[in-house]
Design goal:
By secondary structure, the protein is an alpha/beta fold. The protein is about 40% helix and about 15% strand. It has 14 helices and 13 strands. Strands 5, 6, 7, 8, 9, 10, 11, 12 and 13 form a nine-stranded mixed beta sheet that branches. It is globular and about 75 Å long. The two termini are about 40 Å apart.
Length: about 450
């Protein structure tokens, strides 16, 4: 969403200055150094080039990037030649260098976003140690205790003290359709030996006739490989070795898969009984639907329930602002996977499921929230969602919003946009807790 405007001749610069927008970069023939603040001051704030979330980079900071690309020289000489007097080779070189600059700026932007996330986390930690730390801590604990009772529970990872997980008998009685579609599930894993056996059992114990279970392990050093050996005859494929992260592992697994329906399940999460049969039957009865997901149960390390997310009906628009879709409950058809690019975007480490959903939506997918609890999301100290949300997570989410909207999106704007969705959640959640609806 960034434009690089290259002035081929000084006579073209005034018109390009008038067309600069947020995120645009103007390269003059003389040099980038000439883009001084006093020269562009008459154009408002557009002399500052916004290339990242929370990062305002001016011409002075842009020069090192230009120097890397052009071997220390500014892009072009100070001439008054018109575009017509330039050769095709020179114009092609200008275009190539512009593309190189955009790519370099994107890389610099990603580094800045990750650093900003780390600084935010450090700042929050420092505030908690200041003179007002104790009263602020008491207030946070009070708000945390009241929110699961009176506020929005969606997004919270702890609602109540652990209690035994109760599953309705009708969940276990679910039967697949007569012509059961094949389902491929990829389990990316790294050092989750304490949980992966329960994850695999949650899939295999459902007794679904056409399930293809693939495990992609990143070279675990704990007991994971010992556990996987015990399941080797029940798994379609197992691979263990260094990889490029979770998204790369999922891509590797899906390249080996062949199922009509696809999903991935993290190695510390679980499916609830009857989920595969229920999902398969819904897909068989609704051929127009491409993607489904359901409600979420929150569990602790001992498989005890600590909360539930009751999801409102699906809203495509909410995906432009936030992602509340429980990933472990999501299934999709292979056809929409191929239409959306047939791969996870490996540059994302935290928001990779949200980014995939956005591509599904943009590819024309019909997405449905099913009226049933389909999966269990495990909360523990080493969990990625908890550990990375303050650092990598915020940067990736802000970068994805920028890509969707073509501009920077501020936090208050996001809060206003998601407020109606959260109200619908609160109504459904209260009705479910009162026993007026059941799932």
């Amino acid at each position: 969403n960034m434009r690089v405007l290259w002035a081929l001749g000084a006579e073209h610069e005034p018109s390009l200055l008038g067309s600069l927008g947020p995120g645009d970069v103007l390269l003059s023939e003389a040099s980038v150094a000439e883009l001084e603040a006093d020269r562009l001051g008459r154009e408002g704030d557009r002399e500052l080039i916004d290339v990242g979330v929370g990062a305002i980079v001016g011409p002075g900071l842009l020069r090192p990037v230009i120097g890397d690309i052009f071997d220390g020289e500014a892009p072009g000489a100070a001439t008054a030649e018109s575009p017509a007097e330039r050769s095709d080779a020179e114009l092609a070189l200008a275009l190539e260098r512009s593309e190189q600059l955009v790519e370099r700026l994107r890389e610099r932007n990603e580094d800045l976003e990750e650093r900003i996330g780390e600084l935010r986390y450090a700042l929050k930690a420092r505030r908690r140690k200041g003179p007002l730390a104790r009263p602020a801590s008491v207030l946070r604990r009070l708000r945390a205790r009241l929110r699961p009772i009176y506020g929005v529970r969606l997004g919270l990872l702890w609602h109540h003290h652990p209690r035994n997980l109760k599953i309705p008998d009708r969940y276990r009685q679910e039967s697949p359709p007569s012509d059961a579609p094949s389902i491929s599930i990829v389990v990316p894993s790294f050092n989750q030996g304490g949980f992966i056996d329960r994850t695999l059992d949650s899939v295999l114990d459902q007794g679904y006739p056409e399930v293809e279970l693939i495990v992609q392990d990143g070279g675990s050093s704990d007991e994971t490989l010992t556990v996987l050996d015990a399941y080797s005859d029940r798994l379609a494929h197992v691979h263990s070795g260094p990889d490029g992260g979770q998204a790369a592992a999922i891509n590797s697994g899906f390249r080996r898969s062949s199922g009509e329906i696809m999903a991935w399940l993290n190695s510390d999460d679980a499916l609830l009984p009857g989920t595969l049969a229920y999902v398969a039957r819904y897909f068989a009865e609704h051929p127009e639907v491409d993607v489904v997901y359901g409600h979420r149960v929150l569990i602790d390390t001992d498989d005890r329930e600590i909360g539930r997310w009751v999801m409102p009906a699906h809203d495509d628009e909410i995906l432009s602002w936030a992602d509340y879709v429980p990933q472990e409950t999501m299934f999709w058809r292979r056809g929409i996977w191929e239409q959306a690019g047939a791969q996870m975007t490996e540059e994302y480490r935290f928001a990779l499921d949200w980014e995939l959903l956005v591509r599904f939506r943009d590819a024309g997918a019909r997405i449905v929230r099913l009226p049933r609890f389909l999966g269990a999301f495990r909360i523990h100290e080493e969990q990625k969602s908890s550990a990375q949300v303050e650092t990598v997570g915020h940067g990736e989410m802000e970068r994805l919003r920028r890509r969707i909207h073509g501009r920077r999106v501020w936090g208050r704007e996001t809060q206003r946009a998601i407020r109606p969705y959260l109200r619908r959640h609160m109504i459904l959640d209260k009705l479910w807790r009162l026993g007026l609806i059941r799932h």
